[in-house]
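Re: the request from the purification team.
They wanted to know what the chain is likely to look like in 3D before they choose a buffer screen. I agreed to run a prediction and write the result into the notebook, where they can find it.
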Amino acid sequence: MVLQYKCPDCGADMEFNSQSGKLACPQCGREVDIDNRNAPGWNEGDVVPPTNEDAANNVNEDLGEYEQFEEKQESGAFQNGEAVSYSCQNCGAEIITTSDTVATRCSFCGAPVVLGDRCDGALAPSRVLPFTISKQQAQDAFKKWCKKGLLSPRGFMNADRIKSITGIYVPFWLFDVNSQGEIHATATRVRHYSDSSYNYTETKWYDIYRRFDVNYNMIPADASEKMDDLIMDKMEPFPYQNLKPFSAPYLSGYIAEKYNYTDQQLFPRIRPRAEEYTTDFVRGDIIGYSSVHIEQKQMNIRPRKTEYVMLPIWMVCYDYQNTEHNFAMNGQTGKIAGKPPISKGKVAGFFCGISAGVFLVTKILIMLIAGGGFFS
């Protein structure tokens, strides 16, 4: 099922506008409110957003629903790696997609296309975080970011070799987890004092014990096999207060793919993060000591609820010296992550500058101690 949203006034293809938060016609400027489907402008013959009656199936309240979800996947509901073709409603051209594609563009006429059968039923996200940064704003922000790379080559800092900027809705699972357990630690309190003859150091040792039962909400993990997990982790935090109930028109004009990994498959990535959060939380509760060392900890971390959502990412492909460098930008906050090239000359100059500074300071100190002049 191909969804292409037509303007009620001129019939042109409408796309989601990140500035207004509405479907917008690039030809006549007509805008349609996505959140209010009963508002003037929704023409059921031309603009037909899919329903999301099954979105609640993706919010797993307990482990029993994990098992039910796994049975759906194992039965063949999802297929990966197979090319599937659709017909563009504008020009009739064949649109070749992978089985993961949810939204794309016709390669012949450029019309935005949403594949309704890929974001309905069990495949429907429960919510979506719409783009608020436009493509032009993303490009301008990336150029400013490149200029801040003090160790980057000058040719890279000019930011004049941007090959492509693509807006992608990346599938994520959000995990609500519970962490229960106990921690045993040793701590010290150190006191320094002196009398007329001696200086004293007094150290007291303490055994610390803490039981904990804490909850963490909305820990994200990207569910796309194509995305670099480390880069996606650096896209946090996302402003979850801006999440919207999922509706396919939000995807119009962007690329989107369904998840490759289930929530149960991704939970091993969430567990160590929850453990780290819990350890930091407990250590923050042990105050008033000079030092704290955790001797033993036992944690039972389990999922309370999971939610399948789509989050906005601008992917920037930069061509520098015949090598492609990929960067990601949070489509709501503008935060950028990626590894820019490093200039060997600048690195060498940086360390030479540090070495010269250290040498100068050392010489000054030696002269002062020796009682001579600065450069005698």
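For the purification team: The radius of gyration is 28 Å.
Please add any questions underneath this entry.
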